[in-house]
Amino acid sequence: VYSLRVLAGLRERGIALILASGRHFQDVRGLHAQLGGEGYLISSNGAAVNDRDLGLVHHCTLDPACVTALVNDPDFADLHINVYRTQDWLVARPEPYLLGFHQESGFAYQVVDLAGIDGTDVLKVFFYGDHRRLAAIEPVIRQRFEGLVSTTFSLPVTLEVMAKGVSKGAAL
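Now predict its structure.
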């Protein structure tokens, strides 16, 4: 509530706002509307940019072969794997804890067989699990997909994988 008031106050002073979030577009578009629906909206850590009319004006997706390898690798089977596509969020099994971050927007994952997705239109893949485990797989992912991916920790328990060069700053 406090942050929303501060942002609304800036907008009232004529300062243009560009929201930038690691969250999915569907999750933050309500905040965009609460702030008057002006300006661009950067989401999925910079992998997607929407204009003030919420039209997708830029996106940078992961290589489909990388996605297929990430979601099907038996070495990662103990982790909760999440896939953000431009319009949805896919998981192989439920993880209610993650839904707690999206209560206000109502944005929720769909449980699907991730092995059955074709890997196209994927903005990011993120792994949820123990930090030590995620820290151990990050260099493996970087080495295996060198030159194709960027990684970041959005939380100690969340390792995100995006196309090389994707960031909120680059999107801005």
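The first strand starts at residue 19 and ends at 20.
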